[in-house]
Structure formats: C-alpha cells, structure tokens
C-alpha cells in the first residue's frame, strides 16, 4: 500500500518545499508553471505579407518568455535571406518560379529542423513558425511534422483588407527590411505590393468548416473581430487572451519610480516610508514634465505604498492604485540595510547573488514571483494607450524586461535609477526607449551583479558552498 | 492629505483638493455594462447568465441577472402549453413584451440607483428588432452593450439541457417527462422561424461573443473595454463536461494545535493521520484523471505527499498573510494590537492585516486559480482555511459578507459537483479529530469578537456597533490599510473621545 510519506526539505534559494530522500531532492512534484502540458506547442502563423504575422510572432514570443514559457520564433523569411544572399525582386515569389519555390520549401524545412532541435534538445516549450503558410497543402505538411514529433499545433491567422493598415505596415517594417535596403521608397512599395499579389491567388484562409478540426485564432482587421476554434489547453487559452488584448494604436508608456524616500536615504530596503525632501521635489518636477508632454488622455497608475501615491499626488490628476505594483516583499529583510542583511543572513545574501531572479527572500518574494503578480498589469497595459506607471525598482525592472525583451538573467540588474522617467514607444517590432532624467539628485539604489571571485565568508558558513552548489539543481 | 498608520484619518481639508483616487475595481468601466443573451431555448443562456453573474460578483463587480422568463412566470401564474409562445399569439406576444420592459426597468433601477455595475438581460432576444430596442434603451441610459449568443444544434446537448433544467422548471411541475419534453420541443420551434442569429456583417457594429457548440468555436466582435475582455476570457474557459472539484485543508498542523495563526509548520500526528485517510478516500473514490493542487506551504505539501500521486504547487494557494500577526496566538494579538482586533470584527472581508492581506486581496490572487479550475475537470485542491473560504464562496455564490465566516473545518473534504444552475456540495468528514479553527461572526455585544470566544486570559473587548456612520467611514479606510485621501468631501475632524476602549456609541 502507501509507503511512508517522504520527508520535505526547503530549497534554500526559492524557499520551495520539495520531497527528499537521503537529503537529496526527489522528483514527483511540479511547480505551477504556465505550460503544464507535457508536449510542446507549435504556433503557426498564417496570412498574406504585411498582415502583421512577424509583429505578432515577436510580441507573443516576448510575452511567453516573460511569463516563463521558453519560446522562440523561427522566421522563414530570415532563412530565405540567408540562403538567397541578395533579394532582387518580387519575381522570386511568383507562383510559377520553380527555382524560387524550391528554395522557399528548403528554407521552410530548415526552419522546421531548427524547431525540432529547439523543442527537443534546447528545452524549448513553444516554437513560433512565422511564415505565410497560406495554402492548405503547406499547413498539412506542418501538421504532419508536428504529429510525428508529438507537438500540439495552434494556428494564428491575420486577415486584413484595410489598405491604410497595410500601407502603414509596409512603411514601418518593410522599407527598412534587408530586402529593400538599396531601394527608394516608391520602388520598394511597388515591389512589395506585387509580392503580396503573388500569394493572393493561392491563399486559402482558415475556414471554420473545412478547417474545423484545427485549433486556431483568426484575427480580422487588426483585432476588430476574432474567430477562435478548438482551444485545447491552458497555454492556448492564454495565447488567445493575450492576442485579443493587444493593439497597434500608437501610444507611449511612461515608467518611473516613486521619488526618493526616507528609507532610500537611509540605505534601507522595502518598508512603506514617505518621500524625502528631494523626493517631493522630484514629484513636483514630474508633474511639470507630464504637463509639458501634453499627453492625450494619460492614465496614471501607482502601487498601494505611500511613496508612489505621494508622488502621484503631486500630479493633480486622478490615478489608480494597484496592489500588484507594490515593491518586492523582502520578508525578514524588510527595512534592513544590505550590511545588516549580510551580517544577519549571510547565507541569504550569498544565495541572492547566486541567482537573483529566482531567489526568494525568507517569508518574502522573488523576482520570479513578481513577474507572476505583474502579469495582469502587463495585460492591462497592453489594452490601454497612454499610461504613466509610478512604481518601484524591482517592479520597474520586471515591466521593463517585458517591454525590452530582457531575459531572466538580466532582469534583476536592469538600471532603473530614481528620478528618471523611461518613455517607451512601440516602433516596428520593438520598443523605442528614452531615458529622461528630471535632474533632481537622489541616492543610487542599484547593485551591480558581483564579479565572479572570492567571497569573504565568515566562519559560520560551513554549508555555504554545498548550498550554493545544490540550490541550482532544484 | 495622507493619513499615517498611527493617526486614524484625515481632518478638515481645504475644499480645493485635487481629484480623488479611484480603486482599481471601479475603474473597470466608467459606464455600466448591459450583457444581453441571445439564442433559442435550451441553448444554455440562463446557465451562462448565472455563472457569469456569479463570477463577476466574486471578483468584485456588482452584477445582477434579469431573467425575462421569471417575469413571465410572475405575470402568467400558470403555464399551460407551448401555445403561449406561438408567433401568432397576440395575447402572448403582448405579455412577453411587457415582461421584457418590466425587466429593463429593473435593470435601470439596479444600474442607476442600486450601485450595480453590470446587468445581465437573460432572454431569447432572437430577432434583430428586439435587440435594436435594447440597444436604444442602453444608449438612452449610457450603458455599454455586450451580446452573448449561444448557438448549438447538437441534439444530445439540447436533450441533456432539457433534462437538467427544464423538467424541474415551474412550467413543467405537473407534467410527466415525455409530455414536458414534447411541449418544450414545440416551444423551441416557435422561435426558430424568426431567429436572426448575430451576423459578422449585419451586426458588425455590435460588441458580442457568439459561442458555438458549447465552446467548440467562438466569434468575438468589437471588444470595447477591460470588463468585456475579462468576460470573453471567462466564457472561453468554462465548459459543461461533468466533473467534481474536491476542496480540503491541509491536515492539522503543529501551529493549529498551539492556537497560532499562519506560519509554515508541519503536520501534527493527527494531521498525518488525516493525510493517510485522505489517500484512502481518494483511492476509494476512483476519480478519473484527478489533478492534485497544493499551496507552497509545508503543511499542504505534506498532506499531498501521503497521496503518492503527482501534484502541482501554487503560490497563489498560500494562506492569507497575517502580516505582523503571523504565528501569534489570539491573546497575543489582543495584547499587542487591540485596535486590529476590533477592526477585524467591523469588516472581516476588507480588513487587511498590517503588512499582510485581506480576504479581498485573497480573491484577487485566487482568480487565476478559479480560471484554471474552470478549465480543468477533476481536481483536488489541498489548501487553507481562508483560501478555501474564498474558493467555496465562488462555487456557492456567497457574498463578501458571508465569505469570511464559511465553515471549512479541518479534516473534512468538500465535494462540489456542478448540477443544473448551481453546485451540489457534499461534506465528507474523514473522522480524524482536530482542533476547531472556526470563529463565528460575533453578535453585537460584549465578550464576543471575530477572534473567538474570550478565554479567561483575555480581556473582554466590546464589539464595535455599526451605528456610528462617521466611525464606519473612517474605519473602512483604515481597515483596508490603504493610503487614501479624502474624496474632496470635507471630513469632520476625528474625535478620539468617540473611541474610548474602541466602543462606538449607540445613536
């Protein structure tokens, strides 16, 4: 019958209880991750050129990676550019161009080969196969490939006939593409329109009846309408929700921290103190800055901590408080200085440098926890237009990592100094970032990643090296 | 200006204050939302309406459903037959139109005067004409409209629907099963000829979701705002596959035995015994593909370990954070935080422990758990008292006032099975003794608190009466432990003499 229950031991880094045998962690449980499916997912884009497939692919990949689902995009156009060094003209894409067809097919297969390697050998969980995939035949090939490898397939089709949207798309991302580097604007546009034409005749959009057995979302007119078919699992449901919340209306997101606080001045972390004199000055400057920017219908968000609210108060505009924007909970280390932490919790201090992203303060949180609690904030930021988020150092690093596609290793070391506003404006496939310092002095709260070197270890830390070695096994 | 945690609240402030801040919930929509169902009879409109209403209320959006069929039953006392619904029945049409108008009037009252944020108008609404009437009504009143259509032609689904909810309806109380089904099928036929389904072209200006074949496929058009986006996400995650959800707490813990709250202790001997009994119970139940979820606290994980099955750890299922009161005994809390003690009585749902959480916070962090529970089938959730209360309140549609007082004893499994429009609950005690951690809602009067019966070691703390409205308003701000400004109203200065020993005067 049932064997005696296993002993539990707590991972010193993440503070997670895991069963262990003979002092070593044992398998059998899983941490709640987004992608609880055992089989990887292959997302396949579908659509004519200039319908936003690559925009969607890159954005979705960035989002999934940020929430902790290892994802990579495979853009067949990139493979084609590597293979055919110089792009000549739209003729390459003519449906009767045998040579062109052969090369394009090879590129698609090469990309699928890399997908296989990524999902099987590199720990990938989701692969985004970004190509036109406009014929049922091509999609059939991909389905067979996925079936052989045990992947779930989810199609993302973008359908749009609005000439303005297509024209803007071409301006934003095609004109500067390597294909058209040596062309003038008019020639490039003309060639690209002919390129689109090459696909139009053979385009078989996803059909609710003919493709009723497939899992897909059809995005129409940049999100005006969606058709969603056979969502199979949690990750597909999250993908659909995300895709239904993003938009392409131009806007800017302003991120900044609260003004310098009294605890900042004392070099203490966490807590819920008010603004210092310089912090109040910053708040005034921020008010002026915002007014000068003349932002259309700006929404202002703060956390529920005094220092962000005090900062917002100086703006004299309505603002919303989000508990989710509260600073990382440092648990037993709240309101301590780094020296005190090193003194009282030398092991914790060292563990944090070991893996700052996953490290959870005792009775507190980790950056990894922060990302999970910030996900609804990101989702709402995607829905909104112009927003100013007044938050905290760790929180701002998480949000910034999402917009700038920074991996978990870099996230906890992103520079988010006090009294500096970051203005993020989506452009092409990414985000333009402007750093605006409001020229009010403040302490520096940034700690760079320590160099690999010797640590000064006090005599009490006999188990330190074992812990450091063992912690990342879990 | 801001209050501090030491001071009670603000005093008189100048009238020219900056505009007030708005809690996030209120900002979901500026204007109320009218959700309108569309579909033939027996397509799950009422099921969807009730479920959606339950979900929105649970996440804090005041929502109410208005079922036109109910209005019709109130008007036409006795249902005779499907003939009432014949499209050529002038009398019937007149009554049905009146009922729809009466329902819309009540909608107006709810959204206008009763603080409602969302109203769900549950009727067939199968013609474009009827829908246009509703859209005009909404426009006049400044409501956003969101249509939810259910389209289904699967005869098995429709038959099951009829068995589950129509046979038990007041309309068919005095009929035998066959008669009832026959009549109902004819009733459906009355609508079919005039049914104008939502069309992506003809209705392209409307905001709607069309649910096809019980969630196989969805068509979503013009989602306008955050609340509509959340509604769409929710509707796309629910299903009607029969299943059961098992909720229980961890086995009795060492801290439970010591009468201390919170913490991260292991199981007591009795707690370990419960874990073994739970394993046996689960085995005997023979549940298909059971998923097991725990929190990241030792006591739930130890409990799951005894089951010898894979389980998932959710941080979101951790017990409510009691902040500065963690691991304290009630006597210690009263000693060190007598004000907190009293405040918790006043509004246990919104009360936030200093540096901790409130039940209201818990609900927000549990929302992804609920969403995933909706997606899943058979699940056992091993969690904690406050967490279990929140989850239970969602399934049993309990209000925020009742939620913190729901009974969730140790060593008892609650089996929830969706049935008809609600949930069947079976309470299964596994017959292993444990301490009782439940505190009833206190009567207004001396010697009772939300913390439990007063022991001989504790001073009596009179309960705050609800009659002092000034005190209530100030208290509600302090309870939530939020940094708030006055809202541009002029507040009276705080009279500390009103709070001797934390007793509020009667009117």
Automatic annotation (TrEMBL), chain B:
<keyword id="KW-0597">Phosphoprotein</keyword>
<comment type="similarity">
    <text>In the C-terminal section; belongs to the phosphoglycerate mutase family.</text>
</comment>
<dbReference type="GO" id="GO:0006000">
    <property type="term" value="P:fructose metabolic process"/>
</dbReference>
<feature type="domain" description="6-phosphofructo-2-kinase">
    <location>
        <begin position="28"/>
        <end position="242"/>
    </location>
</feature>
<dbReference type="InterPro" id="IPR029033">
    <property type="entry name" value="His_PPase_superfam"/>
</dbReference>
<dbReference type="Pfam" id="PF01591">
    <property type="entry name" value="6PF2K"/>
</dbReference>
<keyword id="KW-0378">Hydrolase</keyword>
<dbReference type="GO" id="GO:0006003">
    <property type="term" value="P:fructose 2,6-bisphosphate metabolic process"/>
</dbReference>
<keyword id="KW-0808">Transferase</keyword>
<dbReference type="InterPro" id="IPR013078">
    <property type="entry name" value="His_Pase_superF_clade-1"/>
</dbReference>
<feature type="binding site">
    <location>
        <begin position="249"/>
        <end position="256"/>
    </location>
    <ligand>
        <name>substrate</name>
    </ligand>
</feature>
<dbReference type="Pfam" id="PF00300">
    <property type="entry name" value="His_Phos_1"/>
</dbReference>
<dbReference type="GO" id="GO:0004331">
    <property type="term" value="F:fructose-2,6-bisphosphate 2-phosphatase activity"/>
</dbReference>
<keyword id="KW-0511">Multifunctional enzyme</keyword>
<dbReference type="InterPro" id="IPR027417">
    <property type="entry name" value="P-loop_NTPase"/>
</dbReference>
<dbReference type="GO" id="GO:0005524">
    <property type="term" value="F:ATP binding"/>
</dbReference>
<feature type="active site" description="Proton donor/acceptor">
    <location>
        <position position="319"/>
    </location>
</feature>
<dbReference type="InterPro" id="IPR001345">
    <property type="entry name" value="PG/BPGM_mutase_AS"/>
</dbReference>
<dbReference type="InterPro" id="IPR013079">
    <property type="entry name" value="6Phosfructo_kin"/>
</dbReference>
<feature type="binding site">
    <location>
        <position position="299"/>
    </location>
    <ligand>
        <name>substrate</name>
    </ligand>
</feature>
<dbReference type="GO" id="GO:0003873">
    <property type="term" value="F:6-phosphofructo-2-kinase activity"/>
</dbReference>
<dbReference type="InterPro" id="IPR003094">
    <property type="entry name" value="6Pfruct_kin"/>
</dbReference>
<feature type="active site" description="Tele-phosphohistidine intermediate">
    <location>
        <position position="250"/>
    </location>
</feature>
<dbReference type="GO" id="GO:0005829">
    <property type="term" value="C:cytosol"/>
</dbReference>
<protein>
    <submittedName>
        <fullName>6-phosphofructo-2-kinase/fructose-2,6-biphosphatase 4</fullName>
    </submittedName>
</protein>
<keyword id="KW-0418">Kinase</keyword>
<keyword id="KW-0547">Nucleotide-binding</keyword>
<keyword id="KW-0067">ATP-binding</keyword>
